Amino acid sequence: MFRGSMVAMVTPMHEDGAIDDAALARLVEFHVEHGTDGIVAVGTTGESATLDYDEHCQVMRRVVELVRGRLPVIGGTGANSTWEAIKLTRCAQEGGCDAALLVTPYYNKPTQEGLYRHFKAVADAVAIPQILYNVPGRTACDMLPETVERLSDIPNIVAIKEAQGTVQRAREIIERCGDRLDVYSGDDGNAREIILAGGKGVISVSANVAPNAMRRMCAAALGGNREEAEAIDARLAALHKALFVESNPIPVKWAVHEMGLIGLGIRLPMTALSDHHHETVRQAMRLALGDDD
Q1: Model confidence over 25-60: pLDDT tens digits?
Q2: Residue 260, class by beta-carbon neighbours within 10 Å (0-12 exposed, 13-18 middle, 19+ buried)?
Q3: Which residues of the chain have pLDDT under 50?
Q4: Catalytic pick among 87, 106, 116, 133
Q5: DSSP collapsed to 3 states, the chain
Q6: Mind listing the domains of the chain with CATH numbers?
Q7: Alpha carbons 272 and 274: distance in angstroms, whole number
Q8: Residue 120 catalytic?
Q9: Is 133 a catalytic residue?
């Protein structure tokens, strides 16, 4: 349903933590102008964990308004409460999002049967297309390929963002689910190989900084052009790594600030990027951007 480089967009904030609407508008235009294939609003990178319900819905609606149909908008609506996930997913649908991205329930560590029932309950309650999101490194919960295969039979569950960390996991899901479910990489570092193996794109942190390069890399991989995809990705490799020198979204918010697009606002318990990492991120940005972005 969605293809290519979809940015897991940061949520710009003033230094007091209030959402910065003017900077949000700048970010949306930046991504439209630089060819980003889709925007994920209020995912992990968008600080979903520290936005309250009203703010969460406000940002999703506002991004849809700003995009004006020029790109798909995917609202991050996952929660570790099934009821809350349903409520947020309804908000995404009512706000005009094209799809919802739902992370596996975090902290409470459900069983595989609990995961199946959780996602089925959300899909049954809200008709919007839904993208599963597996990121065990952050959630302490790993949704196994056999559970994903069961969920792929539900019509409005259309894709998965797989961030378990290995290309082999993505390959197994592709083999099990075939055309019933699109697979997106949730790790910029292995996005190229997942797409070349049959994935449809990436939901990307690096695209906040280098949207044009990420779009071109994905397009090359989707077209089966390994050599071109590898050449572009080689320039991006340091950025993929540097944006995780501290917990996401700390480094990427600092990088987007360096580009003059947003202020330094970030909400506790996240803090600004440590000074000793500044040059590492700057050097990775220089290598990734070149003259392209």
Answers
A1: 999 999 999 999 999 999 999 999 999 999 999 999
A2: exposed
A3: none
A4: 133
A5: CCCEEEEECCCCECCCCCECHHHHHHHHHHHHHCCCCEEEECCCCCCHHHCCHHHHHHHHHHHHHHHCCCCCEEEECCCCCHHHHHHHHHHHHHCCCCEEEEECCCCCCCCHHHHHHHHHHHHHHCCCCEEEEECHHHHCCCCCHHHHHHHCCCCCEEEEEECCCCHHHHHHHHHHHHHHCEEEECCHHHHHHHHHCCCCEEEECHHHCCHHHHHHHHHHHHCCCHHHHHHHHHHHHHHHHHCCCCCCCHHHHHHHHHCCCCCCCCCCCCCCCCHHHHHHHHHHHHHHHCCCC
A6: 4-234 (3.20.20.70)
A7: 6
A8: no
A9: yes
The answer to whether the beta carbons of residues 105 and 141 sit under 8 Å apart is yes
- Catalytic one of 87, 106, 161, 200: 161
The 10s digit of each residue's pLDDT in 231-269 is 999 999 999 999 999 999 999 999 999 999 999 999 999
Exposure on the CB side of residue 186, measured as CA atoms within 13 A: 27
Question: CA angle, corner 24, sides to 122 and 3, nearest 5?
Answer: 55
Residues with Cβ within 8 Å of 291's Cβ and at least 6 positions away in sequence, in order, are: none
